[in-house]
Amino acid sequence: AAGGRALRWANGRAPARGLRVSPRARIAMPSWVIDRYGSNEVLRFTREMMFPIIHFPNEVIIKVHAASLNPIDLSMRSGYGATALNMKRDPLKIKTGETEFPLTLGRDVSGVVMECGLGVSYFKPGDEVWAAIPPWKQGTLSEFVVASGNEVSFKPKCLSHTEAAALPYVGLTAWSALNQVGGLNQSNCSGKRILILGASGGVGTFAVQLMKAWDAHVTAVCSHDASTLVKKLGADDVIDYKSGNLEEQLKTLPLFDFILDNVGGSTEKWALDLLKKWSGATYVTLVTPFLINMDKLGVADGMLQTGVTIGSKTLKHLLKGVHYRWAFFMPSGPSLDEIAELVDSGKIQPVIDEVFSFSEVPEAFLKLEGGHARGKTVINVISRQ
């Protein structure tokens, strides 16, 4: 990880990989799992989920205090992305059958380090941390979860675990789109005109705050009932997509330097026309066919189709004077370090729609399934936060 923040090896050398079992006499833990793909009825509570084991020297076990739900949890519950995720879980096809089950969903975690692998010196048991666990790993709707040290960061001091659990996945997704793919940062955003489509969800509310923290001019698109929230987060202009033809409303505004699209669908057919031509202006979408292609066509053909699609779209729009990009969630402890600094300085705050107890996980999924959330749906795994 950047700057040697996460992994520091003794004598500058990594110890040999080895299996390390927790010294505590724990073999099972409470967890919400699925045994097959489907709708909400596939969720099952068990007290017999296998306790996580440190397999690699850079891993830590975290006691989960709070987790949260994201749209990807709904999609994964239904089997979305299973082909690609199973390839990542078992790339050499060592195991047979449906190796992902029982599968624990949930990507966000805020909690306390319980145990560290032999190669972890940046964290120690008792540290309060947060993380976003990649979707190919067992999730956070459990009493404990294992994570790589370079996926973990110290929790912002100003937030409770409940508040902190609302940020990692959406924060890293927005960070990936805006900073790592879009090239935006604190030093080059001042005065830039940014358009955020789908500004009232988890990624959108984070993106609005990040862009304002970096001194950009932000135009946010959301429904009228979310406009007060989005304005409170700092958006300069708020457009109600229900109040008329959205394309025509946006065409009345000056052209943009950057567009973040959380909506997808037909939006990209016209949204790129809102960018300044031949100025380095960029459109980044988080709605891509990558996993769908692999589910439908298999790994090889799906990757081929995806490559053809992104290549042709990139070239098409480059010839028109704008950049077209896809972005994805990327786990990163170093990026969470930077986000934590912004949170502790008061520039970014969590936006929570509703908090549920650990026994209410099915109800939390139904809430998320209903759509139109204003921020995040959080699960308190430990009742008092």
TrEMBL record:
Annotated ranges, domain Enoyl reductase (ER): 38-379
Gene Ontology biological-process annotations: nervous system development; ubiquinone biosynthetic process
MF terms in GO: nucleotide binding; oxidoreductase activity; zinc ion binding
Primary location class: mitochondrion
Top-level taxon of origin: Eukaryota
GO CC field: mitochondrial matrix; mitochondrial outer membrane
Keywords linked to the UniProt accession: Acetylation, Membrane, Mitochondrion, Mitochondrion outer membrane, NADP, Neurogenesis, Nucleotide-binding, Oxidoreductase, Transit peptide, Ubiquinone biosynthesis
Catalytic activity as recorded in UniProt: a 3-demethylubiquinone + NADPH + 2 H(+) = a 3-demethylubiquinol + NADP(+); a 3-demethylubiquinone + NADH + 2 H(+) = a 3-demethylubiquinol + NAD(+); 3-demethylubiquinone-10 + NADPH + 2 H(+) = 3-demethylubiquinol-10 + NADP(+); 3-demethylubiquinone-10 + NADH + 2 H(+) = 3-demethylubiquinol-10 + NAD(+)
Pathway annotation: Cofactor biosynthesis; ubiquinone biosynthesis
CDD domains recorded: RTN4I1
Keyword hit for Nucleotide-binding: yes
PROSITE patterns in alphabetical order: QOR_ZETA_CRYSTAL (PS01162)
Family that this chain belongs to: Belongs to the zinc-containing alcohol dehydrogenase family. Quinone oxidoreductase subfamily.
Protein's recorded name: NAD(P)H oxidoreductase RTN4IP1, mitochondrial
